[in-house]
Amino acid sequence: MSFDLTPSYDELPGVRPVVDELRRYLGGELADYERAHGLGPESRYDRSVLQPVWKRSRELGFYGIHLPPEYGGRGLTHSELAALKEEVGASGRALYHSVLGDMGGPLRAGAIFGHATPVQLERYLLPVVDGDRACCFSLTETDAGSDVRAMRTTATPDGAGWRLTGRKVFSSAGPFADFSVLVARMAGPGEVYSAFLVDLDSPGCTVLDGEVPLSGQHIESDILLQDCYVGPDQLLGGVGDGLKIGLGRVTSNRLLHCPTIIGHARRVLALTIEYAKQRAIFGGTLADLQSIQHKIADMATALYAARSMTYDALAALDRGESPRTEAFMCKLFVAENAFAIADSAMQIHGKAGMVRGSEIEWMFRRLRMFRILTGSSEIQKNGIAKALLT
Fold first, then answer.
1. Which end of the chain has the lower number of beta carbons within 10 A, N or C?
2. Are residues 230 and 139 in the same domain?
């Protein structure tokens, strides 16, 4: 894999035409849409702003493109999907997360297509694919993050269905979702967990403003459940399948977070190179200073290493292998080095980078979060060490 700030994806010939189309949309029509609506990454989005992007992205073939043809997708490999995720991450668009369906769309629904009944597909998932409905995922609780078995949200039997009681936090896309894929502990002895499709307008279910993360994005909700009834047709999979569904496809999901991070880091590096070439100082430019040249060289080298190891692991996944340890390594290395790239970018930009409203400042905050999101760096190290020492 060669290094380029605008990758050609020669090793993925099947996706190259899609990349070209995606770049044109991101840099043209979507950029114009954001400017017309005054949208930035910290804007409050409502359904009236987001849904046109979902529908247009679906019309252009991007929304749900990873799905098999029977659901209107192209059945992409993991590596091909990663290329598209990298491109949206590198685009600089505020609504990058809505183009492929990461935020409330078919990518958010993820692996549950394989667990849904025909009725659930028709009622919940296919409308998500078409951009008519949106979903969120509710697993985390205040005292149950990495230790998901500490969750207290409980499903108590009531006739053929259950009553849900508890509170979920950090339900991404919750502010504009129609339903949640929600995991709860089953009442009774033992540790049994099940997943439910919960309509967010159900009696006993309240969507509350979630905490605003470091990135300033208003995309999180708390889901408060107070004796909320769910019927047997809302059980996803079987009783006891909750953690399998909630944590399913962990290796692929962990790897597929990396291209978005890489895309962000790529954007940061491109902005830094442009700034260094233009910033006048001491009768020349920043780019003339060896200290700046060395920082940029280190940034580019880290990015190349992160991309190479990620796509290598994704290629193994596409071959039917299970690169579990490599996925831990990728998430650790990519998250740590992407933030190091952002930190160097901030240092090079100086005042211009650290003021609110600067894209570098926002990327710095966003990339810092990935050292915790989807499993902290310490969790990744635990996984690596366990694989090597047991």
1. C
2. yes
Q: Closest by alpha carbon to 317, among 259, 369, 265? A: 259
Domain that holds residue 278: 250-389
What CATH number should be reported for the domain holding residue 238? 2.40.110.10
- Domain-ending residue, one of 195, 225, 246: 246
Region of residue 221 (left: phi > 0; alpha: psi -120 to 50; beta: else): beta
- Pairing state between β 205-209 and 179-186: unpaired
Point out the domain boundary residue: 246, 261, 286.
246
The C-alpha angle 352, 357, 363, rounded to 5 degrees, equals: 80
259-301 pLDDT, tens digit per residue, is 999 999 999 999 999 999 999 999 999 999 999 999 999 999 9
Give the residue among 209, 135, 204, 205 at the shortest CA–CA distance from 169: 209
Q: What is the pTM of this model?
A: 0.95
The helix or strand, by DSSP H or E, that contains position 205, with its residue range, turns out to be strand 205-209
In whole angstroms, give the CA distance from residue 309 to residue 280: 36
